[in-house]
Design brief:
- There is one protein chain.
- The chain is of the alpha+beta class and 511 residues long.
- The chain has 2 domains: 8-275, Neutral Protease, domain 2 (Orthogonal Bundle); 312-510, no CATH class.
- 25% of the residues lie in helices and 22% in strands.
- The protein has helices spanning 73-92, 156-173, 181-195, 200-210, 227-231, 233-242, 246-257, 266-271, 277-289, 495-510, and strands spanning 39-43, 49-54, 113-118, 126-134, 137-145, 314-316, 319-325, 329-337, 340-346, 350-359, 374-378, 382-390, 393-401, 409-416, 428-430, 446-447, 452-453, 487-489.
- A 6-stranded mixed sheet has the order 6-8-13-10-11-18, covered by helices on one side. A 5-stranded mixed sheet has the order 1-2-3-5-4, covered by helices on one side. It has a 5-stranded mixed sheet with strand order 7-14-9-12-15, with no helix packed on it.
- Helix 1 (73-92) links the parallel strand 2 (49-54) and strand 3 (113-118).
- Helix 1 packs across helix 2 and helix 3 runs antiparallel to helix 4.
- The radius of gyration is 26 Å and the shape is elongated.
- The two termini are 38 Å apart.
């Protein structure tokens, strides 16, 4: 169930700290207590959180009181999960929610972070609101569904844990600068998994990005907060898994200084950790390919199989189309190769687009994919042979663009077995196949999502003395001047390619 309010929705408050302050549920507003509600309050032991609930009336909460302390267990659980999540976020290095005292008020009766239990009637399950802003940021409160009756959570506790951790992080965000929806909802959804590593809601919301992977991660669709904005949590989780949660802390700190174009902060944050955006984004895009039905062989997110997966931009024996590659986005082409050499033809240069070729296990049309067996760039209009003598079967080509730009890079592409196919543009021919070998793992040779070694089923690589990593940005590695191919492939004699065939044989035996 979608949360309904974000820091982005109240951006104007940072310009006028009090003019747009929102009514609390005790004073009116869209979701509020009714005059007939008997509203009571309870503050948990640490005095971090104060919960407000109704014991009778239209917004009555669940009244079970198994510990017989006079406070409904549901209300206690909401307050305690909220306090625990705030404690976790602070321990990770984030700021605590701004107390009401910072704006010289105590609307909830104490300086504690206030939570209100209101019946949303199925229209939402939580929202964050602002009281006002000062030099220390904005103070606020959040509203949560009063009983989760009729909601899709498997248990009431799951509903409480999910929404409280999400909305609590909105309270944390309010201590920083205005955040656009893709940052606000993306990092709040990311926070759900920090609090509950098995969060099903986190995985479900990540699918919002996989539905539209060709869209820049920092440009969700317009209108009310879209699912794509929540789905950017997949990118933030990838970054924190690849490095640490401190990267997200530093991200918000950087935005507190200047919140214009948050996407421009990634390069510097990664560089501080010995990483770069081209490498990270290309790896992220390949992880996203190996999700859903395509998970299980290539390195990917630890929850890859639970994701829905992506739909191809094209699915054919010859992939021929006018392609657009947007910044911090990815395109995916499913190639049904008849066997033999694999060719890539482009009628224009795409210097900052990285391409990779991924085999499907058992040479099936689709299914679990392997790590890349070839990578290349299109540095001039030409036909490049990117792999020699492929077995017939299904393959995937991924195209990623990691630079920040105003618009897409465009070219007419043709990917297949015959570069002179009628569907292909008329360009010069390059008969050289790149001679360097690239590793199937990321630049450290480990699974960046978990910090462990590559999965047993992933092809291992033996690099040549001039080898470069498949996660590295594509560079011109032409061997023969103007006639060379800027690509890196695993030839049929390479250890990586042979290793891939072994993987396929093992998979057949297992089946």
């Amino acid at each position: 169930m979608r949360r309904t309010a974000t820091i982005g929705a109240v951006a104007a408050m940072l310009l006028s700290p009090s003019a747009f302050a929102e009514d609390r549920p005790t004073h009116g507003g869209l979701w509020s207590f009714a005059p007939t509600d008997d509203v009571q309050s309870w503050e948990e032991a640490s005095a971090t959180v104060r919960v407000h609930f109704s014991t009778s009336g239209p917004n009555v909460t669940r009244l079970d009181d198994f510990d017989e302390d006079g406070v409904p267990d549901f209300a206690q659980n909401v307050a305690e999960r909220t306090a625990e999540s705030i404690e976790l976020y602070v321990s990770l290095g984030f700021r605590a929610p701004v107390p009401e005292s910072a704006i010289e008020t105590e609307l909830g009766g104490s300086p504690a972070y206030d939570v209100y239990l209101i019946d949303f009637g199925g229209s939402a399950d939580g929202r964050f609101g602002i009281d006002g802003c000062g030099n220390a940021g904005c103070a606020g409160f959040y509203v949560i569904e009063n009983d989760f009756a009729g909601y899709g959570y498997t248990t009431i506790e799951e509903g409480i844990t999910t929404v409280s951790s999400h909305e609590s992080f909105h309270g944390v965000q309010a201590a920083y600068n205005f955040l656009p929806d893709w940052v606000s909802e993306g990092t709040a959804t990311w926070a759900e998994r920090q609090f509950d590593s098995d969060s099903a809601d986190f995985v479900r919301l990540c699918n919002g990005l996989l539905v539209d992977p060709g869209r820049p991660v920092y440009q969700p669709p317009g209108g009310p907060v879209p699912s794509f904005a929540y789905g950017t949590a997949l990118w933030f989780d990838f970054l924190s898994s690849r490095h640490d949660a401190g990267l997200i802390v530093d991200f918000l700190e950087a935005l507190d200084e200047d919140a214009e174009q948050p996407e421009l902060r990634f390069e510097a944050l990664l560089a501080e950790r010995g990483d770069d955006l081209e490498t990270a984004w290309a790896t992220f895009a390949r992880y996203n390919l190996a999700t859903g039905q395509r998970a299980g062989v290539a390195q990917s997110h630890p929850y890859a199989a639970a994701l829905d997966g992506i739909d191809p931009d094209s699915n054919a024996e010859v992939v021929a189309l006018d392609a657009r590659f947007y910044p911090l986005a990815a395109s995916y082409f499913n190639l049904q190769h008849p066997g033999g050499d694999a060719w890539f033809v482009a009628d224009d240069v795409l210097p900052d687009v990285a391409f990779s070729l991924h085999p499907v296990a058992d040479f099936a049309a689709d299914g679990p994919v392997g790590d890349p067996i070839a990578t290349w760039a299109s540095l001039r209009p030409e036909a490049q042979r990117v792999f020699e003598d492929l077995p017939p079967g299904g393959y995937w080509v991924v195209g990623t663009r990691s630079v920040i730009a105003d618009g897409p890079a465009r070219a007419h592409l043709c990917i297949g077995a015959d570069p002179q196919d009628d569907a292909c543009p008329d360009v010069s021919m390059s008969t050289q196949t790149g001679g360097t070998t690239s590793e199937a793992a990321d630049e450290t040779g480990t699974d960046a999502s978990s910090g462990g070694v590559a999965p047993p089923d992933a092809p291992s690589a033996t690099s040549s003395p001039t080898s470069t990593d498949t996660d590295d940005a594509p560079r011109s590695t032409s061997n023969d001047g103007a006639d060379g191919c800027s690509c890196r492939s695993k030839t049929p004699d390479s250890p990586v390619y042979l290793g891939f065939l072994v993987v396929l044989a093992v998979r057949r035996r297992r089946r």
